[in-house]
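Students often ask why we bother encoding 3D structure as a string. The short answer is that it lets us treat folding as translation between two languages. Here is a chain of 297 residues written in the first language.
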Amino acid sequence: MGVVRLRRICSFLAYLLTMVALLSPGTALAALEVTDDAGNTVTLEAPAERIVALAPHIVEMLYAVEAGERLVGVLQGSDYPEAAKQVSRVGSYRGIALEAIMAREPDLVVTWRSGTPRSVVERLNALGVPVYESEPRHLDDVAEDLRDLGRLTGHSKASAQAAEAFESRLAASRQTLKETPRVFYQLGHNPLTTLGDEHIITQAIRHCGGKPLFANRSVLVPEIGREALIEARPEVILSAARSDDWQRAWQGQDWLPAVREGHLYTLDPDPISRPGPRLVEGIEQVCQALERASQSP
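And here it is in the second language, the structure alphabet:
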């Protein structure tokens, strides 16, 4: 049985037990229990009232499940929705202040497994602060995180609606193209980097009918040499940016089919880069770009 499937079964059973406790007259409220993306069991005696979220996508998830008002601390860059800009900052990607987190007296800290320093997570665990580690690596994981955060905050109904809305829109966006375009996702230009198979953006490219190049590399962010890119012959190049300026670096490099045919597409960076509720908007942009490229003569 796969880890993802096991996690879903455990989370569903925990949800059923919670609902039974809520519906049984004279029964004390059962502890809230979920399994996070790291496989850890997270248990709360009561819905979290004071939450610190250590990544923008987590902030968006909490607002999506109607628990945004419980936030007492976030990182710099947490700017969506508008209300998130007013929440106290406890650090940034350059550094997280444990003292600032503890000063907020959280009863739940939601971390980003690949972004939050392990030292911070370990210290929170040592201090007895409940920690939920979020790390959506597959498209379905976003909905699962929404459901988990809804249960931990007492907003199961709102989280179920948010998760179902995400899943419905995701299913509607899936496409199969007549010919599968070879897609290079440009993360950085100097050095030239892309994303490996375990990244959710790579999953999005497949979801939209494309073949993500270099997905077989063993690291999450592989560096790509010029010769390897020439040999891969990308037919579409995607990159997340605030403008099309990144495309200028490819001018004159017509030895790449994507450049020669003009199939360079800029994605809105926040939706595609944050594995939260708005990820589906980024996926729709990917699908539209690949469809446009496939229809080109």
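Translate back mentally: The chain has a mean pLDDT of 91. Keep this in mind for the problem set.
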